[in-house]
Design brief:
The complex is a heterodimer of chains A (553) and B (334). With 553 residues, chain A is an alpha+beta fold. Chain A has three domains: 124 residues, D-Maltodextrin-Binding Protein, domain 2 (3-Layer(aba) Sandwich); 133 residues, Dipeptide-binding Protein, Domain 1 (Dipeptide-binding Protein, domain 1), CATH 3.90.76.10; 219 residues, Dipeptide-binding Protein, domain 3. Chain A is globular, with a radius of gyration of 25 Å. Chain B folds into two domains: 72 residues, no CATH class; 247 residues, Orthogonal Bundle (MetI-like fold). The chains are: A alpha+beta (553), B mainly alpha (334). The interface between A and B is large, with 56 and 53 residues.
Chain lengths: 553, 334
């Protein structure tokens, strides 16, 4: 009782100081309680894991979802032909045990795993693959080996399939026997195999889908380690272990999982502290410090597969001036931005692909923060001390993203840095929809813009070509026209050998450094606090949350 | 009396029609391309076009409005852009949570508010009066968000009396029939779930009740003080009636009329879903849902949700007006 009283007094004193939860503990306290290297313990079966997250899933049909909260559930219910390895985007066999690529790079033959069953008891086979992937095609150029199914009409465009350009890649899908699927491509497309590991390429139960195509999004049936049980909108999703899972050596160990929606970050953290939830996503930076000091909690971190950058409007004559771009690049103190605004949940970027990705070019020096050098470039650009340079606009993101937690604050910091070399700028921001739309229009009222990207499939093409190869399409958000870069992107896509591709992308990063089409700012670091009893949870660079091999002490 | 009721009910129709026009126009003139917002930074021209086509954004405005009205009359509020679920289903899943919370908060605030106000009025300028009025001032000005966190820290994390967030515990099983958890647990005779749901309701209902409670208390006090100065109260006192009888029989009924208005208004507001309270307590109601709809610019959610909130508000006010007539028969004469 006394203890409680003292605690209450403490709480009120603490609140009286006017900072309910934002109170940052003093520096130099106990050392961070990082998870100890696990002694190789035998996984324990059983238990319920409660995952606290910021928002609800939108839907649970992997072909149509676009958001992390939906994929978080899909990752545990469904599986794809290929898997990403733990903590990297290297590939390993999934529902396909092996695959062969023809010498011309146009035919992919997948051998499928036998004896796998969907949660509804139906068999996983080549026809299920043809159905799952084929339903996303615009022209259903598919062939089943058995009697197959009539694939229902699409209700809406399958976002990822479309945005990954799969209709331009896949020509036909054919089940040649019960456990062999052949994909015929229209053109050589090296990232294709990595795409087959993404959520949209998950294999669903055709029987369950056909029964009621509109209801599937709320009653998902896959082959994964967990089965769907119940969904209370905006409240919770319950899953339970799939007792017939094919990969018993790796899990599942948990009996049940509950994904609870707790929108407010600090409340989610309080629930974790109270032990009511087992783990959570997106903690407030101040709470991470508290979590490190809490003996009941441990913290897992992982470099995010993303990039936040500052773009130049290449449609505007002014920004075709390389020296001016370099002046901006050297004027901005990115380290200060990452330290103060990302609060340790990010690292300064040298390249526009994350360092964990294959093909990352370590040799690129990166732009130093150097006011004198920036001034020199500015003078060489024809604007000594910023003279004759009109006031420029700096578009700042109105929303938080992992790669840029506070666009407006980042904008203000940049404004100050630019001011130091004599560039006058002002912040421009719109609501997110307008921002994205107007950014794409590249109007003359836009000079610099903040934007970023979270990778899909762990392939450098998914960053470099999609974001910066302006010659490929007018829809690319950085309309930079560089023939060498464009040629390299084409080569990268049509070369199947990964070693050769890595060299190509390294060259491309060097060109980007020399030409400075954008200024890379930061990659985020994703952090997840959890109770100490959680074992074997690994954050994945793609942000997927995979509970297959997780167990509770 | 009947004429008043009929006229009052008929007046609801143009009000609601006006609501539909406003809701429709509000969205039509809002900047921002919904297709672009929906698809985010990864949108391709092709997928954008497909989405615009899908949303029917190419039709002229009046056609869009006509379609909108037609659907409403058929109780078809469309499908949400975001979740591809019927708006009516989404509302059915969430509105009970909001009603449950609003009713609980209103019960707390009106009962305590009236009692506090009444005592303060009968003991004007006593210490009780001072404390309750200063308390209600604090109640009105306290940010719900902050209050919620304090409540959680004290009553959940430290004392462990109440659950922190959500509507039901992880291990509590409840067969859901109406989505009113309290009602469902009674219908299924599940005492454990009833108790659990009630405990989950405690903190959010209390946090939500503070502002209306304070307003009701102050309103009751001032209105009662006014009534106490009336001649008929003096007469009653002169007759030598007991103070209790004077207050309960003669003063209260007259004093409560403005209080009913306030309670009705507050209830109408709460029924629209308390965004902050619902968000902080992870309470899956319409307030948070509608707010998310606005953030995601989900046309259908905004239209359906605003319509629901506005209709509820209009109906609650209708009931309040009708209650007036019951409490004070003179009103019907006007």
């Amino acid at each position: 009782m006394m203890k409680k009283f003292v605690m209450l007094v403490c709480i009120f004193v603490f609140l009286g100081a006017g900072s309910a939860l934002a109170a940052t503990p003093k520096k130099g306290g106990t050392p961070a309680a990082e998870p100890k290297k696990e002694a190789v313990a035998k996984p324990k079966k059983g238990g319920t894991l409660v995952y606290g997250r910021g928002g609800d899933s939108v839907g649970l049909d992997p072909a149509y979802e676009t958001d992390g909260n939906s994929f978080m559930i899909c990752d545990n219910i469904f599986e794809a032909l290929v898997f990403y390895k733990d903590e990297s985007t290297a590939l390993e066999p999934g529902l396909a045990t092996s695959w062969e690529i023809s010498s011309d790079g146009l035919t992919y033959t997948f051998k499928l795993r036998k004896g796998v069953k969907f949660h509804d008891g139906t068999a996983f086979n080549a026809d299920a693959v043809v159905f799952s992937i084929g339903r996303m095609m615009k022209n259903r150029n598919v062939k089943f080996s058995g009697k197959g199914w009539e694939i229902p009409k699409q209700e809406r465009p399958p976002e990822y399939w479309v945005s990954m350009g799969m209709d331009d890649t896949v020509d036909a899908i054919e089940a040649t026997d019960e456990y062999t699927v052949v994909f015929k491509l229209k053109k050589v497309q090296a990232p294709f195999i990595a795409n087959m590991g993404m959520d949209f390429a998950d294999i669903i139960s055709p029987t369950a889908f056909i029964k009621d195509p509109k209801a599937f999004v709320r009653n998902p049936v896959g082959t994964g380690p967990f089965k769907f049980v119940k969904w209370v909108k905006d409240d919770r999703i319950n899953l339970e272990a799939n007792k017939d899972y094919w990969d018993k050596a790796k899990g599942p160990y948990l009996d049940k999982m509950v994904f609870r929606v707790i929108p407010e970050n600090s409340v989610r953290f309080l629930e974790l502290k109270a032990g009511n939830i087992t783990m959570m996503d997106f903690p407030n930076p101040a709470d991470i410090e508290m979590a490190r000091k809490d003996p009941k909690l441990q913290i897992i971190s992982q470099q995010g597969m993303n990039i936040g950058y500052l773009g130049f409007n290449h449609k505007k004559e002014l920004w075709k001036n390389l020296k001016l771009r370099l002046a901006v690049a050297h004027a901005i103190n990115r380290k200060a931005i990452v330290d103060k605004i990302y609060q340790g949940m990010g690292e300064v970027a040298k390249n526009c692909i994350p360092p964990t990705m294959w093909g990352y070019n370590k040799e690129v020096p990166g732009y130093d923060y150097d006011v004198a050098l920036a001034k020199k470039y500015l003078a060489e650009a024809g604007y000594p001390e910023g003279k004759d340079l009109p006031e420029i606009t700096l578009w700042s993101m109105p929303v938080a993203r992992p790669y840029n937690p506070e666009g407006l604050k980042v904008g203000v910091a940049m404004l100050g840095d630019l001011g130091k070399i004599g560039i006058k700028a002002r912040i421009v921001s719109y609501d997110w929809g307008t921002y994205l739309k107007r950014q794409r229009e590249q109007g003359q009222d836009m000079d610099l813009f903040q934007l970023g990207w979270t990778g899909d499939n762990g392939d450098p093409d998914n960053f470099l070509a999609v974001l910066f190869d302006g010659m490929e399409s007018a829809a690319v958000r950085t309309q930079w026209q560089n023939e060498d870069f464009h040629r390299l992107m084409g080569e990268g896509r049509t070369t199947v050998d990964q070693g050769k591709r890595a060299e190509i992308y390294k060259k491309a990063q060097q060109i980007m450094y020399d030409e400075c089409p954008v200024l890379p700012i930061a990659h985020s670091i994703v952090v997840s606090p959890e109770l100490k009893k959680v074992r074997n949870f690994k954050l994945h660079p793609t942000n997927s949350v995979r509970m297959k091999s997780v167990w509770l002490q | 009396m009947t004429g008043f009721i009929v006229r009052r009910i008929l007046a609801v129709i143009p009000t609601l029609l006006g609501v539909t026009v406003v809701i429709f126009l509000m969205l039509a003139i809002t900047p921002g391309d919904p297709a672009e917002l929906l698809l985010g930074e990864r949108a391709t021209q092709e997928s954008l076009d497909a989405m615009r086509e899908y949303l029917g954004l190419k039709e002229p405005l009046h056609v869009q409005y006509g379609l909108f009205l037609k659907r409403i009359v058929q109780f078809d509020l469309g499908e949400t852009i975001w979740t591809r679920e019927k708006v009516s289903t989404e509302i059915k899943e969430r509105f009970p949570a909001t009603i449950e919370l609003a009713v609980a908060a209103m019960l707390i605030s009106s009962s305590f508010g009236i009692i506090l106000g009444l005592i303060s009025a009968t003991r004007q300028y006593s210490w009780f009066d001072y404390i309750s009025m200063v308390g209600s001032l604090i109640g009105v000005s306290m940010p719900v968000f902050w209050l919620a966190l304090v409540l959680m820290l004290v009553f959940s994390l430290t004392l462990g009396w109440f659950p922190m967030s959500g509507r039901l515990g992880i291990d509590t099983n409840l067969e859901v029939i109406t989505n009113f958890y309290l009602l469902d647990s009674i219908l299924t005779g599940n005492g454990e779930a009833f108790w659990d749901a009630l405990r989950h309701l405690a903190l959010p209902a209390f946090a939500l009740s503070t502002i209306p409670l304070a307003i009701v208390a102050r309103m009751t006090r001032s209105s009662m003080l006014e009534v106490f100065r009336q001649d008929y109260i003096k007469t009653a006192r002169a007759k030598g009636l007991s103070e209790f009888k004077i207050v309960m029989k003669h003063a209260l009924r007259n004093g409560l009329i403005p209080v009913v208005t306030v309670v009705g208004l507050q209830f109408g507001i709460l029924m629209g879903g308390a965004i902050l309270t619902e968000t902080v307590f992870a309470w899956p109601g319409v307030g948070k849902w509608l707010f998310d709809g606005v953030v995601k610019r989900d046309y259908m959610v905004i239209q359906g949700g605003t319509l629901l909130v506005a209709t509820t508000f209009v109906l609650v006010n209708l009931v309040v007006d009708l209650l007036y007539a019951v409490i004070n028969p003179r009103i019907s004469v006007r």
